[in-house]
Amino acid sequence: MTGPSEPEDQVAKPAPKDPFEPMPSAPAPAEPDRAAVARPRTVDRAFIVWVAFAVLLLAIAVLFLTVSAASLEDAIRTAFRQQNRAFTEDEVSAGAAFIRSVGIGFNVVFAIAVGGCAYAMRAGRNWARITLCVLGGVAVVAGLFGLGGSLLFTLVELALIVMGAIFMFRKEAAAYFTPYRVPGTR
Length: 186
Known about the structure:
Elements: H1 41-66, H2 69-82, H3 89-122, H4 126-147, H5 151-168, H6 171-177
Helix pairs in contact: 1-3, 1-5, 2-3, 3-4, 4-5
């Protein structure tokens, strides 16, 4: 049967099932199979060292929590007297609060960043091992300015950072961190 606008002599033809056939999509670039490159022991050792460094940073943050305000204020007064600077008690108490908050905040933020990058490094991400070295360098410099708790903590931090960097950049780890390259590209 035809509709009112169609002539009666035309017969309805069945519509094709799919008039438009899309082009097949390009295959996804092959991702490197991390199972093909086994994680070397040096990477596992570096991971352990970086996690130990993150735990040390958290311990330093706890140390800043446990130090009394009076001892921080005494240290600030002593520093002002050694510099022959005039000071008020408001400046001393504000300085103690500032040192405590910056010490806690810096160490907690760095511990989280180091821990996250350590997991990414263990997964074979090259950017993570570079970031860990940068974070480690910043932590040592900050430790030298007093945010590391003491010289002993700063030296332990430095030893952990050097060990972690050595383990990450050993010859055995190079293939694990070599980025996958699509054939025909640079």
